[in-house]
Amino acid sequence: MAEAMQQHGVDQSQSGPWSVLDVYGEVELSWSPDLRQEVLTVLAKSSALAVRLARVTYIDSSGIAALVEGFQRARSHHQRFVLLSPSPPVRSVLELARLDRVFPIFPDLAAATAAGG
Amino acid sequence: MSARPLLDLELAAEAAALPAMRRQLCATLERLRVPAATRDRLVLAVHEACANVIRHGYGDRAGGRMRLSVYRVRQWLHFRLRDQAPALVPPTLVARDLDECRPGGLGLPIIDQTMQRWCWLPQRHRDGNVLNMWCRWSKGVS
Fold it and tell me: What is the pLDDT of residue A2?
């Protein structure tokens, strides 16, 4: 989906019931509205969304807000929403915002599936 | 305050200018040998301050400018961010409770948790705001 030269992007795939968004690069003010839209678009047609964050090198509060909005929308519509393998920069911001206790976070899709997402 | 800032950067108040600001600030903090974890938190906090200027100060309007200056004053790092946006009303600048889970409003709590002191000073009788942020730091101590 994204070109190699881009500093950020998202690859979308399907694994069983899960729609997977594999986010990479810097997630910040200039791009987070696109990620927010991507998350909401997937949630409009899928009952389970996993957002993989292993390749995210930087995230700011606007990127976190996009994830929170997706999580809240999923919860209100009885959908599954999980975060997979957040990179150290992402985990640091999640902890700073105390959201590591809010989001379901798993190392991989198998663990999320085993836990019921 | 020392006469010469460690970093003095004027930048456009737009999201596209933030990655370069982060890189320059990161390099400045690396030169001071600020530990990586502390450095990354400081860069994030300053980024959030700039993002607030862009979104709330200038309201995403193009053409605004801001100026970031970084000083070292004894055991303190002092970050000063100036803009020419309409003066903000100080009572509205309160870091929200992080136990409240909602999208948005995370910028100030990030600043609040990273800096030991911060204050936002609207300019009287003219546009513009100055955000001062201080982080206690001494070499070798995170």
Answer: 39
Contact B16 A26 (CB under 8 A): no
Please check whether residue B141 lies inside any domain of the structure: no
**pTM as predicted:** 0.89
Rounded Cα distance between B19 and B35, Å, is 20
What residues does B10 pair with on adjacent strands? B67
User: What 3-state DSSP class applies to A47?
Assistant: coil
B1 part of a folded domain: no
Any chain A CB within 8 A of the CB of B55?
yes
Residue B64 and residue B10 in contact, taking contact as beta carbons nearer than 8 Å = no
Complete domains list, chain A, with CATH = 8-114 (3.30.750.24)
Share of chain A above pLDDT 70, in %: 94
Per residue in B41-93, pLDDT (tens digit) is 999 999 999 999 999 889 878 889 999 999 999 889 999 999 999 887 665 66
* CA B16 – CA B66 distance, rounded (Å): 13
Residue span of the structural domain in which B71 resides = 7-136
**Residue B25 forms part of a structural domain:** yes
Q: Which residue from B minimizes the CA distance to A29?
A: B15
Q: What is the CATH number of the domain that holds B121?
A: 3.30.565.10
B26 touches chain A (CB under 8 A): no
Asked if A80 and A114 count as a contact pair (C-beta separation under 8 A), the reply is: no
Q: Do A96 and B51 touch (CB under 8 A)?
A: no
ipTM rounded to 2 decimals: 0.87
Are the beta carbons of B47 and A60 separated by less than 8 Å? yes
Structural domain includes residue B132:
yes
Site from A58, A61, A68, A81 to mutate, B interface, most B CB atoms within 10 angstroms: A61
